[in-house]
From TrEMBL, chains A, B:
Pathway: Amino-acid biosynthesis; L-methionine biosynthesis via de novo pathway; L-homoserine from L-aspartate: step 3/3; Amino-acid biosynthesis; L-threonine biosynthesis; L-threonine from L-aspartate: step 3/5. Catalyzes the conversion of L-aspartate-beta-semialdehyde (L-Asa) to L-homoserine (L-Hse), the third step in the biosynthesis of amino acids that derive from aspartate (the aspartate family of amino acids), including methioinine and threonine, the latter of which is a precursor to isoleucine; production of homoserine leads to a branch-point in the pathway as it can either be O-phosphorylated for processing to threonine, or O-acylated for processing to methionine. Gene3D superfamilies: Dihydrodipicolinate Reductase, domain 2, NAD(P)-binding Rossmann-like Domain. Residues 130-328 form the Homoserine dehydrogenase catalytic domain. PANTHER family: HOMOSERINE DEHYDROGENASE, PTHR43070. InterPro entries: Asp/hSer_DH_NAD-bd (IPR005106), Bifunc_Aspkin/hSer_DH (IPR011147), HDH_cat (IPR001342), HDH_CS (IPR019811), HDH_short (IPR022697), NAD(P)-bd_dom_sf (IPR036291). L-homoserine binds at residue 187. Its cofactor is a metal cation. Keywords: Amino-acid biosynthesis, Methionine biosynthesis, NADP, Oxidoreductase, Threonine biosynthesis. Its EC number is 1.1.1.3. One of its GO terms (molecular function) is NADP binding. This is Homoserine dehydrogenase.
Length: 338, 338
């Protein structure tokens, strides 16, 4: 059998995905990338024309069976998901459709359920780590989620693993942020990591998959960008962040004095979800995290000691891996075991 | 749609599974347990007759679509897997079919591939933890496995987490084994845990899923039951184990002197797989494991810092969860998203 794949946004992640797909070889299943689209041009089979998402979807509808892979982070592409899911399967690492308006989220879910089209988004949280699939399995088999807690930002993982460690680290907070930026771990403007919005989107997604109607508007989010620097231009922010080193050093010292470390965590909790800087005891799995790894702990009725998943939660190859795993799940529902 | 389920061996795990299934409610999917079989009797619909696996399979074949769930640890049931898979899907936590003869393993795999019937066995390693599914995703999407290492026995996890900890523990090895037995963590004869065979079976399964033709006959397995006590009767073993406390204390002391702890691990490695007692640095995730949790680290080309999964790897509810997740994967391939 042959499954067609159409990729929107063949950037860094999209290209890694296409490369992984091209190397796939299997007796029962052939995967073909039949169309790609960026913001200007789209390739449909062998013809290159101006981008038009309606025509892109039409082309895919005419070339079944087909999966659309949205590899953008676009807010406009996700508004087309309900239409895509009328006849096509969808795989995406794009958080916007699942963490934005709850109406859109519900429309996406209904479209998938009613039309029997799969909508998988493993890579929206923790890239290729088995997080969404595990949560879905827990929920659908009737387990009760009591809490989900995790470090969902590679950037903030790196920053606090470095800044706040048992035994001390001798670097200031601003210096750690500078390092992270120089190593390419942060967004061009590190405030886009430090404001917690990216983590919040992931918490909203995990909450909704758990059955809690979370939304960005009502979620408690601790923005750790100092108030006075939120409106400053980017270079001023980087220059003046050191003025706030004492504040972070004091927090860190208090944590270390109680044999704890600081970690920036997202938490899904039926009694109150949040995104915040918290203290964790030295023996907690979050305390011994290294590099820029993500970690997530599912506390459930069946797993009172949490089920934990950890590893690289960002990067083109591991994100593409999560997307490709989703595509293979869809393929196996058509062709059987491979 | 309705999917039928037939359970072989409705013991502790089988009953937990059936209970979870009974609580399942979904608009698109109905699950019905239509048959059960133990070593003496089987129930086919409403009739109870003497057990006969051929007739059991026949009944299931006549009541499609159907999944057989083998919840035994029987070596004889697994010989019927190729026949079952001719027309039926199969889900099982029974390790025997996947860690025994490589011929049988290949027959099972071929039967599933050729007949388009699913054969899922998530719960053969780490109960409901997403281990086999993650490994399958890594392998099928073209990642390269460089090493898999883990603590796969809840019993041996408990024993060494207790006996060998940074800061010292003040219990002898024999005392720790006694405690584990009293708490119900061990097999009736703890030597069935300490001999490493159960861990070895899991290593063989993980190896084969990775594409390495491992076998119990050739795998290096460190049996930590003292040689002189291997043939003794069970009570003599428990009485005389304390004679070997010095040996284990010395190993432990050496480990702790190098800021390491002892852990009994299984390792899949293209350059030589093994099951052995090893030292791990205090900062290694295996060193901070608690209770009787399992942990597994996948080292791959895409995940040079390992992808780690940890949590309860034994117990009726979490094993049933793994089996139920597998059943839902099969159901979704028929009915679409649920």
């Amino acid at each position: 059998m042959s499954l067609n794949i159409a990729v929107i946004g063949p950037g860094l992640v999209g290209s890694a995905f296409i490369n992984q797909v091209k190397q796939f070889q299997n007796k029962k299943l052939t995967l073909s990338v039949i169309a790609t689209m960026n913001s200007k041009k789209m390739t449909l089979g062998s013809s290159v024309v101006d981008s038009n998402i309606d025509k892109f979807i039409e082309y895919c509808n005419a070339n079944q069976p087909c999966v659309i892979v949205d590899s953008t982070s676009s807010e406009s592409v996700v508004t087309h998901y309900p239409k895509i899911l009328q006849k096509l399967h969808l795989v995406t690492p794009n958080k916007k459709g699942f963490s934005g308006s709850i109406d859109l989220f519900n429309q996406i879910k209904s479209a998938s359920l009613e039309n029997n089209t799969f909508c998988y988004h493993e890579a929206t949280v923790g890239a290729g780590l088995p997080i969404i699939s595990t949560l879905n399995d827990l929920v659908q088999t009737g387990d009760e989620i009591t809490k989900i807690e995790g470090i969902f930002s590679g950037t903030l993982s790196f920053i606090f693993n470095r800044f706040s460690q048992i035994g001390g680290s001798n670097v200031s907070f601003s210096q750690t942020v500078k390092e992270a930026k120089e190593l390419g771990y942060t967004e061009p403007d590190p405030r886009d990591d430090l404001n917690g919005l990216d983590v919040a989107r992931k918490v909203v997604i995990l909450g909704r998959v758990s059955g809690l109607p979370l939304s960005l508007d009502t979620l408690q989010i601790e923005n750790i960008v100092p108030k006075e620097l939120r409106e400053a231009d980017a270079s001023t922010f980087m220059e003046q962040l050191s003025n706030y080193d004492d504040y972070f050093s004091k927090l860190n010292k208090e944590a270390l004095e109680s044999k704890s470390v600081l970690r920036y965590v997202g938490c899904v909790d039926p009694n109150g979800s949040s995104v915040a800087l918290k203290k964790f005891d030295a023996s907690h799995p979050f305390a011994s995290l290294k590099g820029s790894d993500n970690i997530i702990a599912f506390y459930t009725k069946r797993f009172p000691n949490p089920l934990i998943v950890q590893g690289a939660g960002a990067g083109a190859e591991v994100t593409a891996f999560g997307m490709f795993s989703d595509v293979l799940k869809i393929a196996k529902s058509m062709v059987g075991p491979i």
